[in-house]
Design brief:
A hairpin with a 3-residue loop joins strand 4 (305-310) and strand 5 (314-318). This protein has helices at residues 6-13, 39-67, 86-98, 103-120, 122-134, 149-155, 159-173, 177-193, 199-207, 211-224, 226-241, 253-256, 271-281, 325-342, 349-353, 358-368, 374-380, 385-415, 423-438, 444-447, 450-453, 461-473, 482-493, 500-506, 514-525; strands at 136-139, 142-145, 291-293, 305-310, 314-318. With 556 residues, it is mostly helical.
């Protein structure tokens, strides 16, 4: 998963919310008198309520992320019961129908609809999320949490031990399948109960693209990147983990893109400074309003996080300096997201804060891929020769597998609703798509992980959009070009509401093009540093001397 967005957290939080009053005559402010007859008046009140809720929830989430303490963000919804009243949604729907050209109204209705679906299916959503968060498996007699899996697999040099770890986690995930099926059924029932049409209609409104077109884009991404990704995985598997691609397993994927050998080139407290230097190269000043918390507190969330609490006035960036390549890569991504929020200029507030954030994610992924750009790495580190080649090639594999995996999950969410309704059918679908996307073999036990990744909506859509948009913006030395600044301004000023198709049109692109991603990654895979390879070490045969018999010399 790339960075979480506040809007997704809103939906998840609703399962914890108290039941809203059921009286159809309730006012959005919480009273019990007859509701105003004018839907426009109600929509204005709901806009104020939703804005206040998102600001309050964001502040609570920030406190929890940066300190590990404080009230749960879900508690913010209790102060805004009007957002959960069915009558509110009905009147907002009337207002949106009255003003079909109003984008803010459509975004607000989508947001409140999502909140109410999560409330209606709250029990089932809570049960699944609680089980996911508490999922544990044993490794060498010790209990491990699901969140530890990637680190364990990345750090473990033994393929056999990696397989044991992955198997333990996959078997633990099997218990989630009934909860997942119950959650899906509850969400579908809620959509019907709230008269919201269908799951497909909600997804289309969320991403500005018909479901069929989204599936087609995901399929084209897998096809366009197939050849270059296969070559990249083959060479990287041999170099990084010592196996050929046909022997690659799901348990090997985390270590396949391990970048620890380059960590020394990315010292502690350098990541944010290097990111700001890229902004300066583009002629972009970081606004003073952007709040950056870079304290190395152990209670803070480990990875960088940008939070759009009330853009552009209140955007925050959490950093916990640890050093290393992964911190630099994540800081480039989240730093760009934070900057985009601070420069958002769309009004009213719904245009800046609501939506899937695909355009901003495209800009963020453009910056993140600097971590695999040989020109930028040569300018900012001492990496040269073979170590530079290795890092560039490894990041090309990470980039390709990330986009391909997102495309596979998009297809998974769409296709599993078209007939694969049983747990067994969905596991088989998941296994086939993930094997195709990653070139790694998944066992029957690995397939049980589908219930860890299945989403009420389409989680993979935004990272897929971001990967394609970022690749279409990429060109040699783009971070030194003023043309890039103009393109980024186009994406950022649109706020979260700018969809991926809208972003492509605004940038003068015919459409989102997976071929651009394949081309950009192919250039990385083909890169060869201009320095000569280091001289081969002279053979040292001393280690063989232990078998040599000592001669006894006779005295004459």
């Amino acid at each position: 998963m790339r960075t979480p967005c506040l809007l997704l957290l809103c939906a998840a939080a609703c399962g914890h919310a108290p039941a809203a009053p059921s009286r159809s005559g309730s006012l959005p402010g919480g009273g019990v008198a007859e509701a105003p007859a004018d839907p426009d008046q109600v929509s204005a009140q709901l806009s104020t309520e939703a804005h206040a809720f998102l600001k309050s929830e964001g502040a609570l989430f920030w406190q929890r992320w940066t300190t590990g303490a404080g009230p749960m963000p879900a508690g913010a919804l209790a102060e805004h019961p009007a957002l959960l009243q069915r009558r509110s949604l009905e009147l907002l729907t009337l207002a949106a129908a009255k003003h079909p050209e109003s984008r803010p109204l459509a975004l607000l209705r989508q947001q409140i609809a999502t909140l109410q679906i999560s409330r209606e299916a709250g029990a089932e959503i809570d049960a699944l999320e609680r089980a996911r968060s508490q999922l544990a498996f044993q490794v060498e007699g010790q209990d491990r949490a699901e969140r530890d899996l990637d680190r364990l697999l990345t750090d473990e040099p033994s393929a056999q031990k990696r397989a044991v770890i992955a198997l333990a986690e996959a078997k633990a995930a099997q218990a989630l399948a009934p909860l997942l099926l119950a959650r899906d059924a509850a969400v579908e029932k809620a959509i019907t109960t709230l008269n919201l049409g269908s799951w497909s209609a909600l997804v289309e409104r969320a991403h500005g693209m018909p479901v069929a077109a989204l599936a087609d884009l995901a399929e084209k991404t897998l096809v366009a990147t197939e050849s270059v990704a296969a070559r990249a995985v083959q060479s990287t598997a041999v170099r990084n983990i010592g196996v050929t691609a046909d022997r690659l397993r799901r348990s090997d994927l985390a270590r396949l893109v391990r970048s620890a050998p380059a960590d020394a080139e990315f010292p502690t407290r350098r990541a944010w400074a290097a990111t700001k230097e890229v902004f300066r190269e583009l002629g972009i000043e970081v606004p003073e309003a952007l709040r950056v918390d870079a304290e190395p507190s152990p209670s803070k969330g480990a990875r960088p996080l940008a939070l759009w609490i009330d853009p552009p006035a209140d955007v925050r960036l959490s950093l916990r300096p640890t050093g290393g390549f992964e911190e630099q890569r994540a800081t480039l991504h989240e730093g760009a997201r934070a900057l985009g929020g601070a420069l958002a200029a769309a009004q009213p507030w719904e245009l800046s804060q609501l939506g899937d954030g695909a355009a901003a994610e495209g800009a963020a992924q453009l910056f993140e891929e600097l971590a695999g750009d040989p020109d930028w790495l040569r300018a900012t580190t001492q990496l040269r020769g073979e170590p530079l080649d290795d890092l560039v090639h490894t990041q090309a594999v990470r980039r390709l597998l990330s986009a391909r995996r997102a495309a596979a999950l998009v297809l998974f969410e769409i296709q599993r609703r078209q007939g694969a309704r049983t747990a067994e059918a969905q596991a088989a679908l998941y296994r086939g798509l993930l094997q195709r996307a990653t070139f790694a073999v998944l066992s029957d036990d690995d397939a049980a992980r589908w219930s860890l990744e299945a989403d009420p909506w389409i989680r993979g859509a935004v990272p897929l959009f971001g990967a394609l948009l970022g690749a279409q913006l990429e060109k040699p030395l783009w971070w030194k070009s003023k043309d890039t600044k103009a393109a980024l301004s186009t994406l950022w000023t649109g706020g979260r509401s700018m969809t991926a198709p809208e972003a492509a049109r605004a940038l003068g692109l015919a459409a989102l093009d997976p071929a651009a991603l394949a081309t950009a990654a192919a250039a990385q895979v083909a890169y060869v540093a201009p320095e000569a390879p280091p001289p081969a070490p002279r053979p040292d045969y001393k280690y063989m001397q232990g078998d040599k018999k000592r001669r006894r010399h006779r005295r004459k």
